[in-house]
């Protein structure tokens, strides 16, 4: 009996902010798995702000074309298998996009280790804190930020999955960690649950430069940027000598036809700043070790993570668009089944 | 008999582009050298674009105050000495600013080695190719740029002292080197005398992005920036993956109340770029070795340098202001005596 795959494809390249019309829900019939193939039923997939650039233009990967399935990370269950490496009931993860079912020959598919994913480490962590967002925090901080004990680390989108993880890791390294987030509830979460030393609600601040100055009395040694534009400029204005700026995301810029960018480039000379961008796939060979270390922290209760689950595959476009309004609280995932 | 020192001081902080009224020429009487002191007669001093920021605001050093002597590097001759380390007739160098005479206790003063400074290595090289500009090229390239054989290095202000030196060093490392300069004569100098592979006259180019693309068919691996703003943005647009951007100067930005900055920050993520600023004094302990290496290159004819001499201490302000019009051709110095 054929399986019906429901999938979200690109309807048309958006100009500026994506709308519901950017996406189209399709139903297609999938054949039964051929030899060596297996069929996966998605349980969750992710909606990622960084994917925005692929909707309209060239990025580190080529632009998505109309009709192509929207990208995202998926956690699912094997429901049929002609592949000896995977059995029915296995939980698997892979970059299979916004769809309910996937036929796979096993390539790019990883089985979740049932021993590892237990207790506080839920299967969804594979596409969150142990997936691209968490690994971005881990390698951005360790490879570009290089925090030293006693340094001050400033983090934007602090309640988001990248910022939250980066801040907790920086705390483990003995840093003073200050977040920037967009609501009192987010700031409470950032300081009380994640253990940041302070959090600035940028929506409640007339002068962000002064607010950062007050929250970072010794200046900013590392800025972990998920926002770009004006917030990046403001952080640069507060950077100490030899400050490091990790460009991990730019949620304020993705929807602009002409990005705002930064004005504060002279500070790079006067303060010997270094700003570096990050694509986490470059660290692919180190993923497994990093995941094992972070899994240990989670099981020990040193690293927590929050998910913001949107129910039903129909909700995916709205869940994605909401990311640019700062709606999400933690890693935003869509629950498919 | 007292010595009359003629010196240029800051008359008032300029807004925007400095004018002749920014500066005031004073005459003051100097006492005879006290015990351990010596008197230096300046022969040449430098006018530096990077000094612009100190005229109006805080930079890596504090702002200059009205009445203070304008900064610059000086080469001079000892004319009186009560200091056993310096004899009358010694050539010396130090950061003594825009003045004809200096009383010194020897601190911050270096004697030029007569054996080293001979032949093609003139005394003025001590405040040029072996001074701050040349050392900026040397350390910017070696410590931030880290050129590898076969890479493409793009250099703005290529006919200026920093760019010219950086390009020649990059050629020695086996790189393809492309300059950007502001006249056909400068471009000729850059390619024919300095040996760059190509030079773009940005004043004769409608579309600098395309001009860079044509001159750098394999993209830009290292951009050595002396200009900032739009030119920096354009170079970023052409940067290869893992491109390095050395922020050495920003002559297009210094006179602006609000700098233009850059728009192309998303490329830092998509192309894993790294941009770093440079203050050459951070490498102070390595100066001597770098100078010895560069002196060797000059004596071997591998590294050439050009000076643009303005005659007479009266000409200093105009010589300085002209830097921002791209007037100078090589290291601009003022001949005092």
Keywords:
homodimer; 337 residues; alpha/beta; Quinone Oxidoreductase, Chain A, domain 1; Rossmann fold; seven-stranded mixed beta sheet; six-stranded parallel beta sheet; 9 helices; 15 strands
Write the layout of secondary structure elements.
The structure is a homodimer of 337-residue chains.
Chain A: E1 3-10, E2 23-30, E3 38-46, H1 52-56, E4 74-81, E5 91-94, E6 101-104, E7 110-111, H2 132-145, E8 152-155, H3 161-172, E9 176-181, H4 184-193, E10 198-201, H5 208-215, E11 220-225, H6 229-237, E12 239-247, H7 266-270, E13 274-277, H8 287-299, E14 307-311, H9 316-323, E15 331-335
Parallel strand pairs in A: 8-9, 8-11, 9-10, 11-12, 12-13, 14-15
Antiparallel strand pairs in A: 1-2, 3-4, 3-6, 3-15, 4-5, 5-7
Helix pairs in contact in A: 2-3
Gyration radius of chain A (Cα, Å) is 20 Å
Average of pLDDT of chain A:
94
Which class best fits the helix and strand makeup of chain A? alpha/beta
| Biggest interface and residues each | A-B, 37 and 38 residues
CATH fold-level assignment of the largest domain in chain A: Quinone Oxidoreductase, Chain A, domain 1
Helix proportion of residues of chain A, in percent?
Answer: 10-25%
CATH class division of the largest domain in chain A:
Alpha Beta
Q: Distance between termini of chain A? A: 19 Å
Structural summary, described in words:
Chain A has helices at residues 52-56, 132-145, 161-172, 184-193, 208-215, 229-237, 266-270, 287-299, 316-323; strands at 3-10, 23-30, 38-46, 74-81, 91-94, 101-104, 110-111, 152-155, 176-181, 198-201, 220-225, 239-247, 274-277, 307-311, 331-335. The first copy, chain A, has 337 residues and is of the alpha/beta class. In chain A, the strands form 3 sheets. In chain A, strands 3, 4, 5, 6, 7, 14 and 15 form a 7-stranded mixed beta sheet that branches. In chain A, strands 10-9-8-11-12-13 form a 6-stranded parallel beta sheet, with helices on both faces. A two-stranded antiparallel ribbon of chain A has the order 1-2. Chain A is globular. Chain A is built from 9 helices and 15 strands. Chain A has 2 domains: 3-128 and 306-335, Medium-chain alcohol dehydrogenases, catalytic domain (Quinone Oxidoreductase, Chain A, domain 1, Alpha-Beta Complex); 132-281, NAD(P)-binding Rossmann-like Domain (Rossmann fold, 3-Layer(aba) Sandwich). The mean pLDDT of chain A is 94. In chain A, helix 2 (132-145) packs across helix 3. Chain A binds chain B through residues 50, 53, 59-60, 228-229, 232-233, 247-250, 253-254, 258-279, 282, and chain B through 50, 53, 58-60, 228-229, 232-233, 247-250, 253-254, 258-279, 282.
């Amino acid at each position: 009996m054929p399986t019906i795959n429901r999938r979200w494809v690109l309807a048309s390249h958006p100009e500026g902010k994506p709308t519901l019309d950017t996406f189209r829900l399709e139903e297609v019939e999938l054949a039964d798995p051929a030899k060596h193939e297996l069929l996966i039923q998605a349980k969750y997939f992710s909606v990622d702000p960084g994917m925005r650039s692929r909707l309209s233009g060239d990025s580190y990967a080529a632009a998505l074309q109309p009709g192509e399935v929207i990208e995202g990370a998926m956690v699912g269950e094997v429901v049929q298998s002609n592949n000896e490496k995977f059995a029915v009931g296995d939980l698997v993860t892979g970059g299979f996009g916004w769809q309910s079912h996937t036929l796979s020959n096993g390539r790019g598919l990883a089985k979740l280790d049932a021993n590892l994913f237990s207790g506080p480490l839920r299967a969804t962590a594979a596409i969150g804190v142990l997936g691209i967002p968490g690994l971005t925090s881990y390698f951005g901080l360790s490879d570009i930020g290089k925090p030293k004990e006693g340094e001050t680390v400033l983090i934007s989108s602090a309640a988001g999955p990248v910022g939250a993880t980066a801040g907790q890791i920086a705390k483990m390294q003995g840093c003073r960690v200050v977040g920037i987030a967009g609501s009192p509830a987010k700031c409470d979460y950032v300081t009380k649950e994640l253990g940041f030393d302070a959090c600035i609600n940028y929506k409640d601040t007339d002068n962000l430069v002064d607010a950062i100055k007050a929250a970072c009395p010794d200046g900013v040694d590392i800025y972990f940027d998920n926002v770009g534009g004006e917030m990046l400029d403001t952080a640069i204005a507060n950077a100490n000598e030899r400050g490091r700026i990790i460009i991990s995301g730019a949620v304020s810029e993705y929807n602009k036809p002409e990005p705002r960018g930064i004005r504060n480039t002279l500070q790079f000379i006067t303060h010997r700043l270094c700003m570096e961008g990050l694509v986490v796939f470059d660290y692919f060979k180190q993923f497994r070790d990093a995941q094992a270390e972070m899994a240990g922290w989670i099981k020990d209760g040193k690293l927590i993570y929050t998910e913001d689950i949107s129910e039903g595959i129909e909700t995916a476009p709205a869940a994605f668009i909401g990311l640019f309004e700062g709606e999400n609280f933690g890693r935003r995932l869509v629950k498919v089944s």
